[in-house]
Recover the amino acids of this structure.
């Protein structure tokens, strides 16, 4: 479901606002009243957008939990990009409506004097909206960078797990062969086996040390980002898998 379909579906569910008798307000007052009614409509529309986006995000997270790690990372990035696009579209449409409201077709000096306080309030709301949008875009950009770094570290941890399994398999194989050789007799071949075992054990210790560093960095990155990882299935899976031994 794309953003256009979401907007159309949400617009179709909204009921028209009751009209206010024109005799009770001046034209400018009526325009201000229409603006605030439209602002309430925008707030209701935004809440429905957030509900739809939350539902889509939950569906994508459910699919990601059932997919391999590489697909899960890709789905998380696509979900973040879709959320960014939806918020940008919502902000752009709200800006267009506000600009149209602030451009009346008929003006008069007396009405302009009466409308000046309302215009000041609207300008303050616009400035506040722009500030919040800027802050949101900045936080979203930082989140994308953190997700990119998290994906890289995740791949390193997976690669380190695979390497550790290979080393353990090699140690087991050589240990079994060495035991058989020792039972059959002693000689230069036994010394060679023992040297190989010591070398592999040293490599394994170095690998485990590097793995521990990567694991600490990955945990620190998630914790210092102040992301509620306990409420995110993908991040919770990562944090739990970090502590697993190979």
């Amino acid at each position: 479901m794309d953003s256009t379909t979401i907007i159309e579906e949400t617009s179709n569910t909204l009921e028209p606002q009751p009209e206010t008798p024109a005799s009770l307000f001046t034209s400018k007052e009526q325009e201000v009243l229409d603006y605030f009614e439209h602002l309430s409509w925008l707030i209701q529309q935004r809440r429905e957008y957030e509900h739809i986006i939350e539902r889509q995000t939950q569906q994508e997270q459910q699919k990601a939990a059932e997919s391999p790690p590489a697909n899960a990372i890709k789905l998380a990035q696509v979900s973040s990009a879709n959320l960014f696009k939806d918020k940008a579209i919502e902000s752009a449409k709200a800006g267009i409506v506000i600009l149209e409201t602030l451009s009346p077709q008929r003006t008069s000096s007396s009405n302009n004097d009466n409308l000046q306080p309302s215009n000041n309030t609207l300008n303050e709301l616009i400035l506040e909206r722009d500030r919040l949008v800027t802050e949101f875009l900045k936080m979203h950009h930082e989140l994308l960078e953190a997700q990119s770094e998290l994906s890289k570290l995740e791949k390193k941890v997976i690669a380190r797990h695979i390497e550790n399994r290979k080393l353990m398999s090699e140690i087991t194989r050589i240990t079994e062969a060495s035991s058989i050789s020792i039972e059959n007799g002693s000689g230069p071949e036994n010394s060679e086996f023992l040297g190989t075992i010591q070398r592999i054990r040293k490599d394994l210790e170095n690998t485990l040390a590097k793995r521990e560093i990567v694991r600490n960095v990955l945990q620190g990155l998630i914790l210092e980002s102040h992301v509620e990882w306990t409420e995110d299935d993908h991040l919770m899976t990562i944090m739990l898998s970090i502590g697993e031994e190979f």
Helices lie at 3-13, 27-65, 69-101, 109-184, 188-224, 233-242. The chain has six helices and no strands.
